[in-house]
Design goal:
Layout (H helix, E strand, L loop, with lengths): L5 H15 L24 H10 L13 H11 L11 H9 L6 H20 L8
Helix pairs in contact: 1-2, 1-5, 2-3, 3-4
């Protein structure tokens, strides 16, 4: 079951990319760490999710060691994007999608905000009783 608080996570991640910038090829743009903090450098989609949930733009190396909310966030997003790779690792699917050469910050922000709206709808739609 999807957690309704994921909508807020996706919106915050979208705002981080909007404010800090979008990065491709890694969780964050490490070249800027001499002049900016880890919380203010450009990040990719998973880096933004990690920053919202863990406070750091790089999640633990093994997904199993990540907070459940992070695992849920990447799993849900990975099912709603179009990635050229078929991989069981949701972070890899998101990274592939994020790192497509023509991918823009606006597209990543739009995807995160779209997923947030989907979750809002899932938890606001009336539940219908099903006849047995």
């Amino acid at each position: 079951m999807t957690d309704p608080q994921l909508a807020a996570v996706y919106r915050k991640a979208a705002n981080i990319i909007r404010e800090n910038g979008h990065h491709q090829g890694a969780y964050l743009d490490g070249t800027l760490l001499l002049t900016r903090t880890r919380q203010t450098v450009p990040v990719d989609a998973t880096g933004a999710l990690s920053l919202v949930i863990t406070g750091a733009p790089v999640p633990p190396a093994d997904l199993i060691d990540c907070p459940q909310l992070y695992q849920d966030a990447v799993a849900f997003l990975s099912r709603r994007i179009r990635s050229a790779i078929v991989d069981t690792d949701p972070e890899e699917r998101i990274a592939d999608w994020n790192d497509e050469p023509e991918r823009t910050a606006d597209e990543v922000i739009a995807a995160l905000e779209s997923v947030a709206r989907d979750i809002d709808f899932m938890f606001s739609a009336p539940r219908l009783a099903v006849a047995a």
